[in-house]
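Record now logged underneath.
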Amino acid sequence: MCLAYIRNELNEADTTGTILKAAMWIMYGHLLTEQEASIMNTD
């Protein structure tokens, strides 16, 4: 869902700010998946 949202944002306005926002979303999502993986490993 997040990737589709980012793709739509880039299509609407390919500005530097939008690209940075997309990169932040990707990094945020990556951190969430890493956190979930670590929680599952400890459990």
Notes: Residues 13 and 43 are 43 Å apart (CA to CA).
